[in-house]
Specification:
Layout: E1 19-24, E2 29-36, E3 49-56, E4 62-65, H1 67-71, E5 75-80, E6 90-102, E7 105-115, E8 121-131
Antiparallel strand pairs: 1-2, 2-3, 3-5, 4-6, 6-7, 7-8
Length: 132
């Protein structure tokens, strides 16, 4: 299992040098948190990663998701690594709160519980600015 070597919180926000926090707003808002494995460059599409995506309706300035939304198709867990033998996780619950800062930045605060068919468990926790 790969994990992000990050400090508990950098000030108020999660600090992770091997993570990206982005969003797109063509249609619904799609937020993506990615944690890159190993030492490959983050900009290289072949560098393996895992993460979650969060879909939010267009036109909102704040949102708050709980267990119901997280286990629906609004939150997805993914692993992009052909040779990692990684466990596939599904969101089990948690909370995700988001607030629009401006047209290019959102602040998301998340704690998402993940599980697999083999009873492996994990938790993703972050509070960070997502950029377009």
């Amino acid at each position: 299992m790969a994990s992000c070597k990050k400090s508990e919180l950098d000030g108020e926000y999660t600090h992770c040098e091997r993570c990206t926090y982005t969003f797109t707003d063509a249609g619904p808002l799609i937020f993506e948190y990615k944690h890159y494995f190993f030492e490959g460059p983050i900009s290289n599409p072949a560098t393996p990663y895992r993460g979650i995506s969060v879909e939010v309706p267009a036109g909102v300035d704040v949102f708050s998701y709980g267990d119901k939304e997280i286990v629906s198709d609004k939150v997805n867990s993914f692993v992009m690594c052909v040779n990692c033998m990684a466990v596939a996780f599904e969101p089990l619950g948690g909370t995700i709160k988001g607030m629009k800062i401006n047209d290019r930045n959102w602040l998301l605060d998340a704690k998402v519980y993940l599980g697999s068919q083999t009873d492996v468990r994990d938790t993703l926790v972050f509070k960070q600015f997502f950029t377009k």
